[in-house]
Amino acid sequence: MTKKLFKGLAWLFAIGLVLQAWLAGLALFHHAGYWSTHGRFAEGISVLPFLMLLISFAARLPHNIRTQTGMLAGMVLLIALSAMLPGEVGWLAAFHPVIALFLFFRTMAILRVIHEPA
């Protein structure tokens, strides 16, 4: 049961990341008002890797899955910090979408491993 919950949260997080990219696109190319939606949605999905990390221990998932999930949680902290950086260090804030890419691909890597037969 806990392994299924972990998988479900991982899929929810991956889908949420795609939606985040779409919201950013809407804000850039359609209407800047979508930035607030992007920010609020980020607050909602950012808890998922931390829940996944707790569940990974409860489900006794392999060490590599727990480590990778911990990496997701760390990247969520980094992406949140990058969104709060002032314009004077915009070159650091520019890592925000790069971190988002790493979050997505790491989540998909976790899902690939977790779906492999034991």
UniProtKB/TrEMBL annotation:
The chain crosses the membrane at residues 9-29, 41-59, 71-87, 93-114. InterPro entries: DUF6220. It comes from the Bacteria. The keyword Transmembrane helix applies. Keywords: Membrane, Transmembrane, Transmembrane helix. This is DUF6220 domain-containing protein. It comes from Paenibacillus aurantius.
